[in-house]
Amino acid sequence: MATVVLSFPDDVSLATAVAKRLGARIGRLAWRHFPDGESLVAIDEDIAGADVVLFASLDAPDGKALPLWFAAHTARELGARRVGLVAPYLAYMRQDARFHAGEAISANAFARFLEQCIDWLVTVDPHLHRIERLEAVFRIPAICVAAAPCLAQWIRCEVERPVLIGPDSESAQWVADVARKANAPYQVLEKTRHGDHEVEVSLPDAGSLRGHTPVLLDDIASTGRTLVAALTHLRPLQLPPAVCVVIHALFVGDALESLRNAGAGKIVSTDSVSHSSNAIGLAVPIANGINACLAEATDRHR
Ligand code: R5P
């Protein structure tokens, strides 16, 4: 069965590396805006009977969701056998509860939206905190790829005597796993968020950081304020400059500059979201995830 990968523009580099691993063809996905802001998507015509893999990291999701829906719908009209989505960054998973009266539970609503146009989903470390598994949100085959082995390998090769620091309790799940794989000690701080840009974190245990290079590890850097709050505590401790490692590099506005001003050393990310900080490639685990998802979707079909 032919597999055709159709990538959104920002994701071509990772999608091409994944397609190579899969032995899949990269097809055409063109997306343009009319002057009034409406989108026109055009895809490869030659996909009848194929397994189509749409590749779209869903940072800035509001602008991409509808074009994604158009691409998936068109793939079906043109005879695709199945249409899957690889969204290395899957937006909206943080809003998994009604924190204030009347708020949308965006994680569920977004899942219902995506299920209407795709048959399966592969993503990388979605921010699931209160929800244990992606399958609890999605009713289609959905596989989470873990970035931990790639992060641990990068830290082992690039950082001397690392000590990992998770900036909040939510990061504990990733930090503990990466620390074990990198054979490094770790600690996890407590975070209080007072607003989008106002974040406090607890003091690190300075004694156990001595003689190490601090590595701040978080799943998402958005405004960067979480990492900045942790860097601010590390600065007076006279340690080597802290390395910041993030899975999903959203880095909105002045986030990168704020991190540098707060004393960050190297700032690196996986290539789940295309960004100048990308240093850790995820093509291999994503290709494995796609193979597993296609196999599961086939089993369900039988
Ligand atoms: C939230 O709990 C996440 O793990 C990140 O810590 C958070 O999204 C980072 O956001 P920001 O960079 O805006 O502080």
Topology:
Layout: E1 3-7, H1 12-22, E2 25-26, E3 29-33, E4 39-43, E5 51-55, H2 61-77, E6 82-87, H3 106-115, E7 120-124, E8 142-145, H4 148-158, E9 162-166, H5 172-182, E10 186-188, E11 191-193, E12 199-201, E13 213-221, H6 225-234, E14 242-249, H7 255-261, E15 264-270, E16 278-280, H8 283-301
Parallel strand pairs: 1-2, 1-5, 5-6, 6-7, 7-8, 9-10, 9-13, 13-14, 14-15, 15-16
Antiparallel strand pairs: 3-4, 11-12
The chain binds ribose-5-phosphate (R5P).
Ribose-5-phosphate binds next to strand 13 and helix 6.
Description:
It is a single chain. The protein has helices at residues 12-22, 61-77, 106-115, 148-158, 172-182, 225-234, 255-261, 283-301, and strands spanning 3-7, 25-26, 29-33, 39-43, 51-55, 82-87, 120-124, 142-145, 162-166, 186-188, 191-193, 199-201, 213-221, 242-249, 264-270, 278-280. With 302 residues, it is an alpha/beta fold. The longest helix is centred in the last third of the chain and has 19 residues, at 283-301. The protein folds into two domains: 3-146 and 282-300, Rossmann fold, CATH 3.40.50.2020; 148-280, Rossmann fold (3-Layer(aba) Sandwich). The protein is globular. The structure holds ribose-5-phosphate. Ribose-5-phosphate is lined by residues 127, 168, 170-171, 199, 218-226.
